Structure formats: structure tokens, C-alpha cells
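Hi R.,

Here's the input for the flavin mononucleotide complex you asked about:
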Amino acid sequence: MTRLLVIEASPRFEHSTSRTLTAQFVEKWTRLHPNASVLTRDLTRSNLQFVDLPWIGAAFTPPETHSPEVAAALTTSDILIEELKSADHIVIGTPMYNFSIPALLKAYIDQIVRVGVTVSTTYEGMLKGKQATVILTTGGDFSPGAPFASANVASSYLRQILGFVGITDVNIVLAVKTLTVDQGETTLADFASRFDAELSAAAA
Ligand SMILES: Cc1cc2nc3c(=O)[nH]c(=O)nc-3n(C[C@H](O)[C@H](O)[C@H](O)COP(=O)(O)O)c2cc1C
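And here is the predicted structure with flavin mononucleotide in place:
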């Protein structure tokens, strides 16, 4: 069965621009794939840990040598990787934080990039044949040609790391100037409606 994995990273819930646009995308995607399943991985509710010494010790040693205690360090990583493997399309809804991605999303990435599991020992991505949509919302203006466009590290990093694990079919929906919502110049609904066509195309 076709499956969409929805990864959410904003802690602003009902006020969140990235969650609003992601919900719009999911609605369109499910309409186009009526028999598919949707799995949501909300990073703000996942109690994600940073990579630590037991994790590194387990991830860089052969699984057949692991005691149950050593293997336990990879439990979360194994679950997150299984979710990714089971998905045909992955949508990541995230704000830009300090020109890059929120630490929670980086913690997630550190959990799912594993040599021998998602990247081969010769650095070939092992999650092939998947599609990804990144919905990135930014307070400022990083649209093509804008003075700070090149400061958008988030887009290039996400494309790079998804490609590293084999996901090269990546569509980035960049929703800039969300400050206009926060400052009351426009409503969240009006702002979101501007991305209707782009989100429809991404879901198709
Ligand atoms: C900690 C933090 C850092 C941010 N850094 C940036 C930034 O570097 N550039 C930018 O344009 N907006 C920045 N913003 C604004 C968010 O990217 C923007 O409000 C975004 O729409 C938030 O997404 P959300 O509504 O889904 O949470 C930052 C916001 C926060 C809370």
C-alpha cells in the first residue's frame, strides 16, 4: 500500500505556518491517493535524543556483536528508519531557524542517517525510489533574487542530506515572509491559500 510519512517540526501547533501548509499538502495528497495510508511523525512529541556515546558505539559496530544493552541504544533510530523505509512519499514541514533547520529536525536526521542501514559503506544512499516534499517556512524573504536568498542554508542542507540517504526526488515548497502573518498584515488562511497550486503540484 502506498504510504505518506508526514514529519512535523514546528512547536507552534495551530499557529504554525509550516503545519498549516503541510496539512494542506496532506489533504491534497490523500485525495489523490484514496487507498493510501498516512503516518505522522511529530518531532515535537517524539522525545528525540541527541546522538550520544552508546549510540555511536552501537551504530559503528557490527549488529551481530551487539548485546541487548548495546542494541537498545539504537531502538529509536531503528523505529524512525523503519518508518522511512515503509514510506513512498515523505513530507517534511519545518520552519527555518537561524538560516538552517530546528535542532529537533537535525536530531531526527542524526538518528536516521546510518552507515550500512540508510547509507552504504561506499556512501551510496540506500533509500531509493522515494519522493520527498519539503515545506519550509521562513519569516524573512529568501525567494530567488532576494538579497538574502543565498543565506537559506535550510533548503540546500535538506536536499543534500535527503540525497545522501538516496532520496533524490525532492521538491521544496519555500513559503517566505511568514512575518506578514505574525505582524497581522495577512491571515494564516490567506497566506496558506497562496500556496494552493504549488502544493497541488507537489502532491500530484
Ligand atoms: C528560534 C527561531 C529562529 C528563527 N530564525 C529565522 C531565520 O533565520 N530566518 C527567518 O527568515 N526566520 C526565522 N525565524 C522565523 C520562522 O522561520 C518563521 O516564523 C516560520 O514561519 C515559523 O514556522 P512555524 O510557523 O511553522 O513555526 C525564526 C523563528 C524562531 C522561533
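One thing worth noting: The longest helix spans residues 17-32.

Cheers,
M.
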